[in-house]
Amino acid sequence: MRDTRYLISMLAPDGGAVSIRSCSTEDWSRVIEAAARHKVLPLLAACAVDAGFASILPVSFATMLSKSPATASSPEVTLSLVYHRNAARIADLDAQRIEIQQLLQKKGFQTVALKGAGLLERNIWPNPAARRMTDIDLLVIDPAHAVPANDAIIDFGYRMVRPDEVDSGSIDHDDHQEPALLRDGRHGSVEIHSHLLPRFARHALTREVAVRGITTEPGTSRLSTSDLALHVIAHARLADRALIRADLSLNSVFDVGYLFAYEPLLPSMLAQRELPRDVRRAVNVHWAAVESIFDVSTGVTTIFARWWWQWTLWLADHPRLHSLYRDLVMVPLFLNRDRLSVREGRELHGWDLARARVCHFMRRARTAVEDAGEAA
What we know:
By secondary structure, the protein is mainly α. It has helices spanning 3-11, 16-22, 25-37, 41-50, 59-67, 75-106, 115-122, 146-155, 207-212, 225-237, 250-262, 266-271, 277-294, 303-316, 319-334, 337-344, 350-375; strands spanning 111-113, 135-140, 159-160, 180-182, 189-193. A five-stranded mixed β-sheet has the order 1-2-5-4-3. A hairpin with a 6-residue loop joins strand 4 (180-182) and strand 5 (189-193). The longest helix has 32 residues, at 75-106. It is globular.
C-alpha cells in the first residue's frame, strides 16, 4: 500500500468513506502516521467521523481519555480524540481572533485574517474542526502598525513565546515566521504580519508590491479571496525552495480546493494577475494538486504542473529518496555567501568563503545520510 495515495483516497471529498471503512487494522497506524506527517490528521479524523468509523465523543468522556496516560486502544478512539481536541482548539482560536481583531480595531490598527484564520472567518471548510490550525495570523494593512499592534496584544494579556515552548503540543515552531504571542490557558498563538507574502517569499514579490496589492472585500475587513489564496500558496510552496523540494503541502491543497468551491472564478482571477515566474509556478502546481484530489478542472493548469504534482506524490511515498532529494536541492541555498557570512559572524570572501562552503557542504552531506537512514 502506498500510504500517501491511500490517505488521499480517504480524504477525497467524494468516495473517501469507502476507503476508510475498508482499511485494515494493520494499515491504520501507517495511515495515521502519514496524515500527521502531511498535517491533515484532523481532516482524516473528521472524515472518519463522517464515515461512521470514529465518533463524536461526549465532553466528559473525551476529557477523561485525554488526561489518561494510556495510549489510545484503537484507531477509532485515536481519531475520535483527535476530532474532539481539534474541534475545541478551533473554537478557541476563532474566539481569540474575533477578540483580538476587535481590540486592534479600537486601537486604530486595521487587520485582516490570513491563512487558517481567514478561511475560518469565511466558513470555507465544510467542517471547521477538520482543519489543522496552530495559530492566528493577522495582517496589518499599514506595515507601520505591526510593532504597536504586537504591543497592544501584549498589554491585553499575551506574552512572547519562550524558546522552550516551540516544541510543545500547542506551539509549532516550523509554522512561525513572525514573533509569536501566547496567552496562558488558551490554544495556539498569535502572529502579526506586516506583508502579504511571507518573509521567505519576498524575493519573489517585493514588500512594496505586496503592500500595494492588498485588497479587502467591499464593505468588510476581510482580505480578498484571491489574496487569501495567494498567501496560502506562498506559505506552502515558496518556503526555502519548498516547491523544488517537492513538499506535499496537503493541508494547503485542501485550503485552496475549498476556496475554489467557494469562489469558482478564483483560478481565472489569479491567472489574470501579474506575478513573478516562481510565484506563478507555485500557483500552477497548487491548481494541479487541487484538480487531482478534488476531481475538478480549473482550466488553468499546465502539463508541467501536473507532472510535478505526480512527482511530488511519488516522492511522498519514498521517504528515503525524498530526504536525499530535499538535501540535494537545498545545497545551493545553504552555500549562499550571505547565509554563510551570517553563520560565521563575519563577511566571507575568497579562500575563507571557499573553506566555509566545503565545511558546510560536508556537514550537510553527513546530515543527509543520517536523515535518509532514519527515513528508511
